[in-house]
């Protein structure tokens, strides 16, 4: 974004990316399904709101090259890692197994229907490009353009079926928040009273599920991100996370801000390490059957490993071919429309 960087957004992205890595560990997701359901309700919506808020479209008379280059250098690494994932899914007995791989099937998965953990980058590209195209209609009133953008998102979601409407709406809300001039930190209060608000949102539907030792895994219920309860959870969780940032020392906050500035390499490379985590899973579960030690160690390995691969790519000069420049960013640097 232009001007001073909002470090609180880096903090939010750091927490959300760490939660994403943690619950991509199969053992953790299966052992703690309630926690997984709660986390999956808010962590990607928060990412999408921030992405919409930070989305930059050129003003009248401005250069369009910067925006299009930003999109290109999201599309290139996305296409590479998604292609690799599809090929791997055709060779390995994974949940999203691809039975008959062909160039057409590969292109369809990458362009239209991604599988695996990289759908966020696909959605980000679609939402950003649609936002850019609608905002080019300079002669139209802003309200008309925003309504048209919502219609475009509905068409891509419900007619074309290439993204989830709820995800697009969270991106749109982030863009609306930016256009309104209200400010991200004003809409999401970083106050202590957001904690009881969050508890009031989460506990009523959660307690009956826990009392019966079950969790509704299908259908739309309060923890669906498209429901009113899910929207309330996204708002209240964001406020609580922002409030927690105010309690941290600089020593604790600095590494989190660095992680939040570098979510792209974590999105791209962390699945490699969550798969490798199965090799040390039996040893760590023998030490701690709850899986907490396994989760902490695996997330740490995934973060350090992903950042190390990013640093190696920068050092070898490969990043300019795959990312258009250095992949690692630092909190003091200005950000573009990156993951």
Could you characterize what this model shows?
The structure is a single chain. The protein has 339 residues and is mainly alpha-helical. It has 16 helices and no strands. It has helices spanning 7-23, 26-31, 33-54, 65-91, 103-111, 119-135, 142-159, 165-180, 184-187, 194-211, 228-246, 250-260, 263-276, 281-287, 292-316, 319-322. The longest helix is centred in the first third of the chain and has 27 residues, at 65-91. The chain is globular, with a radius of gyration of 20 Å. The model is unreliable at 215-221 (pLDDT under 50).
Which helices and strands appear, and what pairs or packs with what?
Layout: H1 7-23, H2 26-31, H3 33-54, H4 65-91, H5 103-111, H6 119-135, H7 142-159, H8 165-180, H9 184-187, H10 194-211, H11 228-246, H12 250-260, H13 263-276, H14 281-287, H15 292-316, H16 319-322
